[in-house]
Design goal:
binds magnesium ion; eight-stranded mixed beta sheet; 322 residues; 11 helices; binds adenosine-5'-triphosphate; four-stranded antiparallel beta sheet
Length: 322
Amino acid sequence: MSDPLLSVKNLQVFFHLAQGTLKAIDGVSLDVKKGQIVGLVGESGGGKSMIGLSILRLVPEGGKIASGKIIFEGKNLLNLSEDEIRIIRGSYISMILQDPLTSLNPAFRIGPQMIDVLRLHKGYDKKEAELIAIEMLHNIGIPDPKKNIRKFPHQLSGGMRQRVVIAIAFSCSPKLIIADEPTTALDVTIQAQILQLLKNLSTEYQTSVLFITHDLGIVANLCDSVAVIYAGEIVETAQTSELFLNPKHPYTKALFQSILRHDKKQEHFYSIEGVMGSHIDWPDKCKFYPRCSEKLDGCEKTGSVEFVSYSPDHLVRCLKYE
Ligand SMILES: Nc1ncnc2c1ncn2[C@@H]1O[C@H](COP(=O)(O)OP(=O)(O)OP(=O)(O)O)[C@@H](O)[C@H]1O
Ligand SMILES: [Mg+2]
């Protein structure tokens, strides 16, 4: 089988804080194949965004990629020069964030922002780029594109702004898009439209997507495969249908239990007991066991837990299955 487009191998990202070492990412491995949409799911603070930022070598100040490899199209991105990684960021891997206002420049109308990208990446002249930008706006469902192309970002609705950001991201024909909670700030009907747009464009352009979310419902509808992350470690990976049929890790099961039901009023809302905490100077052992409802006597004493293959492509990291 062909090599994956992106292969993150044993990535570690550390913050050396006054209180000790925070292993924000602790040995994460993850593959994204060509044309695939991979979901990265877990609670707030789990390290989802940090993985996305690490792939682009944009770890915030104070943090450091301590070890690992990020192989993209056969090259380790961690070995590239600053100039080389800038080219990757511009042309090969695009990022879409939760708030489209952070991606768009508030001081410029959306037309010039789209046109600049098309000229830079596709070499069109200004007139050609403008015509293509108008056509793109039409294709992504922006009404009256000739008029809307002259608007400033704040004059568009949140959903329309995110459409524009997605159109700009795809206009560079990247091989990979990292979408970090791109619909979290939108209401549910707009969210569905944006997810549909993202799915259609990724199919049309054969673009792979790493889709970061805390929402298993989105994963079910959008992703081919999924990795569940807890406190900087992947605890389970599988094809989406397999994970939904057969969740194995107690954390994955707890995430499923936390989904709100739409079919009946609930007396008690399930939430996972305790908090994730920061795990500063945490020894090599399961990070979830203090909150785990299925913990075994050995969980506290055992060192790091290895992945076990539950079925082909379904890996789980829990003492129960070792
Ligand atoms: N600038 C920073 N300095 C120190 N620690 C940081 C910094 N940024 C992130 N972290 C830590 O890294 C860990 C992972 O954070 P990250 O933002 O990747 O989580 P996340 O899964 O994206 O959460 P959310 O769902 O809230 O976006 C957290 O423990 C967080 O506190
Ligand atoms: Mg995040």
